[in-house]
Write a structure and sequence with these properties.
Strand order of the largest sheet: 2-3-1-4
Order of helices and strands: HHHEHEEHEHHHHHHHHEHEEHEHHHHH
Number of strands: 8
Mean pLDDT: 84
Helix content: 55-70%
Shape: elongated
Largest sheet: 4 strands, antiparallel
Number of helices: 20
Length: 696
């Protein structure tokens, strides 16, 4: 055995050994990521908002962050004498068992119609420990119960947070299992092999494990904010992007095996052929996600490096571990459709050749019709529901939301959820008087104090998260000089304002970053502009489709304020991915001497099938988010999945191709390909519609 053959045998084994070591090191740390995920209020809030300052100061007050609950007793026909005996016994038991704020038994507030009785409960007993707070809330729920038509629900901001935490705790396992199953089914259908599908699935699993371990390291070293939402999106992104890269590599490797005798050499040719496009596409996605570092919203800013690291790990695994495993397994991994050396692929009519031919016959009509369709769909944004309220964040109504709905009906002129005000202790009396004099305020209660700050609980006359309560919050902020106004409703207001600010900052950054990468890769300005305009149009159309179905079909009462920004980042970065594969091949054909029309149609014919498979896989992985019990995840999964499908089967196939046909060589302006080379004769058979795909 010569030195060359020994090297060929040694390299894949060395790569495999390296990744086995990575798995051994990463495994213990990957399992700890769930322990450092943070879903407290301040982990989602904007960094400098009033509500963030209130939450931080409350954690430093005696007892730490307070736990706010509301016991809601209700009977449709009116509370009976027996009900009141039950209520007194249960409330007295809670007061004697737990250390409540003020040290006194909670005072009940009856509704005017006599059907409802609510008891605000406030305590610092659990402190800042999330598990202790959850245990406290569940203990209160176990201590109260109704009978004979008396319903008892435990609501309030802390109960809502507990219900939200329980949902977040279930996300990781559910999402991982569902994503693996979806990807496995799609790979089996794509490869039609009992063995091949398992290889990329195992490799992308290694990438996900490595990503989780590295993110855990970033949290420990740099105090990176990782929420359950960002961790869930990271899982979907790693599996979606990693599987896409695998599809591109395996397709190219299969073709090279027909032309090259040794699998090692065939894999080298495959990596040289599709590697630059895969590297550029992953770099584009990572750069787009890193633009989120400019966001002021904590959760969005943390998602940037988390998602970018996931894409980089997926790229590393698919470009090193996957090739090594495939080379070691040899041709037999493709059984029963083994690509024998010297064989020709099965001749069959290409769907994308037919699509390209239709675009080539009437490019103006195709381009105009597609643009009109996308524009019409984009008008659906006018039908988007308003901002999503906290009580509407669940697809299945938990106990805390049931309590809020009961309170809203029984107490239409009083809010059961206080607005938290932190004011300097030196001016606390004046702040109490000013707050009581503010329009829309029903009552003000003075609370804890320490380190020069005093806590006030302000109750509005309007229901939580209504226009009236929002006006009251704004009036308090304008009238209470030197004070911070927070609480759940103020947090939602700050989230809306910050998301608007972040869109104005991050969206241009994403567009500039993506455009610069495309210009460097394609050596052109026109082609990158076409791709960027196309993906922005896809985002508008996908969001518009959301406006058509979120309310009428899904029954959602609002849209998460972070949806426009995050869906834009994902659709632009991921959509440009497929544009890179198409345009990179078109440029390759042009460099080989093909005329613009032939280059465009050949690129579509040779990349269309694998891009379609990759698009379906990516859309399916994001659609997994729609099975989670959170409205914000369902909305994100729908918009991104629909956008990817629109991009794959409409924009990439018809609009980009027809635009390239109309522009001809000008699509490469101002690069040298925009000028007709002298003495160059295009291949005569470049535009045969039935020619099988040769390369990916």
């Amino acid at each position: 055995m010569g030195p060359v053959n020994r090297r060929r045998r040694a390299v894949p084994w060395a790569v495999l050994a390296f990744w086995i070591a990575v798995i051994a090191l990463a495994g213990p740390f990957a399992g700890k990521l769930g322990d450092v995920q943070r879903d407290n209020v301040v982990d989602y809030l904007p960094a400098d908002a009033d509500s963030t300052q209130v939450a931080k100061i409350q954690q430093k007050l005696p007892g730490g962050e307070s736990t706010e609950l509301v016991l809601v007793y209700h009977r449709d026909g009116g509370l009976t004498a027996a009900d009141r005996v039950t209520v007194d016994r249960q409330v007295a038991g809670i007061a004697s068992t737990h250390q409540l704020t003020g040290g006194q038994r909670p005072v009940g507030v009856p509704s005017k119609d006599g059907t409802t009785l609510m008891f605000p409960v406030s305590t610092t007993e659990p402190g800042d420990d999330e598990e202790a707070r959850t245990a406290f809330v569940e203990g209160i729920r176990e201590a109260v119960s109704g009978a004979g038509g008396l319903s008892v629900d435990v609501g309030g901001s802390s109960a809502l947070q507990t219900d939200m935490s329980e949902v977040f705790d279930s996300i990781d396992g559910t999402l991982m299992i569902a994503t693996v199953l979806v990807v496995a089914v799609l790979l089996i259908l794509t490869y039609r092999s009992p063995f091949l599908w398992a290889v990329p699935l195992l490799v992308v699993g290694v990438a996900a494990l490595t990503t989780r371990a590295l993110i855990y390291g970033l949290v420990q070293g740099f105090d990176l904010t990782v929420t359950s939402q960002s961790a869930g999106i990271m899982t979907v992104l790693v599996f979606g992007a990693g599987t896409d890269y695998a599809l591109l590599l395996v397709a190219r490797y299969r073709e090279e095996l027909r032309r090259v005798r040794q699998p090692y050499d065939a894999m080298g040719a495959a990596l040289r052929g599709c590697g630059p496009a895969v590297l550029a596409s992953s770099g584009t996605v990572a750069a787009g996600l890193l633009c989120l570092l400019a966001a002021d919203l904590n959760s969005a800013r943390g998602l940037g490096p988390v998602g970018a690291l996931g894409v980089v790990c997926a790229l590393a695994a698919m470009m090193t571990l996957l090739p090594a495993v495939l080379v070691l397994l040899g041709r037999r991994v493709f059984w029963p459709l083994v690509p024998a050396y010297g064989s020709e692929p099965k001749q069959r009519r290409s769907l994308f050749a037919a699509m390209g031919s239709s675009a080539g016959r009437r490019p103006v009509v195709v381009l105009a019709s597609g643009a009109v369709l996308l524009g019409a769909l984009a008008f659906g944004v006018l039908g988007l529901p308003g901002t999503l309220k906290q009580e509407d964040s669940f697809t299945d109504r938990p106990e805390s939301v049931t309590a809020m709905r009961t309170l809203a009906d029984a107490y239409p002129n009083r809010s059961s959820r206080p607005i938290s005000v932190i004011t300097p202790t030196s001016g606390a009396d004046e702040a109490v008087a000013d707050a009581r004099a503010t329009e829309g305020v029903a009552a003000v209660t003075r609370g804890r104090g320490a380190d020069g700050w005093t806590e006030l609980a302000v109750f509005a006359t309007n229901a939580p998260e209504t226009a009236g309560e929002t006006a009251t919050i704004k009036a308090l902020r304008a009238g209470l000089e030197g004070s911070y106004v927070g609480g759940p409703s103020a947090q939602q207001l700050d989230l809306d304002d910050t998301n608007l600010r972040d869109r104005k900052v991050v969206v241009p950054l994403v567009l500039v970053a993506v455009l610069l990468i495309l210009v460097a890769l394609l050596r052109s300005i026109v082609a990158p502009l076409i791709l960027v305009v196309a993906v922005v149009a896809v985002w508008g159309a996908a969001t518009g489709l959301g406006g058509l179905v979120f309310g009428p079909v899904f029954g959602f009462s609002g849209v998460d304020p972070g949806l426009p920004l995050l869906s834009f980042v994902f659709l632009v970065a991921l959509g440009v991915d497929y544009g890179i594969f198409l345009m990179h091949r078109m440029r390759e054909e042009s460099l080989s001497g093909a005329e613009p029309a032939a280059a465009a149609l050949t690129a579509l014919r040779t990349t269309g099938g694998v891009i379609a498979s990759a698009g379906i896989v990516l859309a399916a992985t994001f659609s997994v988010l729609m099975n989670l019990p959170l409205v914000t995840m369902v909305e994100m999964g729908f918009v991104v999945a629909v956008g990817v499908l629109l991009d794959t089967f409409l924009v990439r196939t018809y609009l980009v191709t027809s635009a390239s046909l109309l522009l001809g060589r000008r699509v490469w302006w101002p690069g040298r390909l925009s000028r007709r080379p002298e003495g160059l004769v295009p291949p005569q058979d470049a535009v045969r519609a039935g020619e099988p795909a040769a390369r990916v």
